Amino acid sequence: MLSGDPRIPLPGRDELAEEQRRVYDDVVSGPRGTVVGPIRAAIHNAVLADRWSKFGETLRYNTVFPPALSELAILMTARRWNSELEWTVHAHAARRGGLSDAVIEAIRTARVPEFESEAEREVYEYVRMIQNDGQVSDEAHAAVTARWGVLGVVELTALTGYYTMVAMTLNAHRVPLPPDEPAALFRDGESHPGSLCALPAAGDATG
Q1: Is the pTM of this model over 0.85?
Q2: The domain defined by 66-204 carries CATH number 1.20.1290.10
């Protein structure tokens, strides 16, 4: 099944043990500002949730990449894994970070975006390759490294890997959208395909 009730308990703060509440409060007081998504599942193990949260904060907020490019990589990962919650949360973040609506919609509909910069295209191709194939060409690796350094290519790989773990967690446990938050990935009667989405190569653009 691709939808339905959560498969595991997703406790609120008042239901947590002391160590779990400490982690919960740390997340709320951090840059996320709320406990949503995979932390709701990871909180069953307080140590896991704490390290998960810190790892995610590092990759989302403290890399060499501007928010628009980080969110581009995250949205591609969400689309690859058809993770509704990951997509919905990060589509909002991507717009706030400066990623255009046209690029966001192209990824949502599994089309090649009309890139606004060469840096966007380079990130797109790097993430596309590693998500689709588990490998990256010499050219794609060199392009990201040339622009962002070794630090950047390491961070981009970790970013898409981390959000793959997030997507798996959300999908496996059916972690729901926040209350009153409409689904943004599959909408207007669109059905979940039930399989991974192949991200098209930049050279596949037809218009």
Answers
A1: yes
A2: yes
